[in-house]
């Protein structure tokens, strides 16, 4: 059984029901708790990133449409021209996929921020660290778990 979608699709992703206060956000031992101003700064930065990424995705979509339109192999195109067009199209597809993934991560960070789970490692449940999140606001793993993941990968 397939669930039907109702309503219109939202451009900005899921909207959380409630907004948690900064005091609910996890911090590592020795770190100062999140202030409302710091949480709002993180939220504003993530929203700005999401908007920038959406703009990039739109531009990439337009570029891809042009590449697809021009990929029919024009008169006089040799194999090198066709190969270059294919490489350019594949590169643009890869950039678009990366941008969509970054947008997903950014929107998820906003949801975690609003739910009060922002700053909690998705793997071990420990605090990620306020400084790490301020440097990389989409982080979902603490440094230890991220290092373990990179050694395995």
From TrEMBL:
Keywords, A to Z, come to:
Metal-binding, Zinc, Zinc-finger
Question: Carries keyword Protein biosynthesis?
Answer: no
| Zn-finger (dksA C4-type) residues | 121-145
Ranges where the record places region Disordered: 1-47, 66-87
All copies of the Zinc finger DksA/TraR C4-type domain together span 116-151
Keyword Cell inner membrane recorded: no
This one is known as: TraR/DksA family transcriptional regulator
Instruction: Give the species.
Output: Streptomyces odorifer
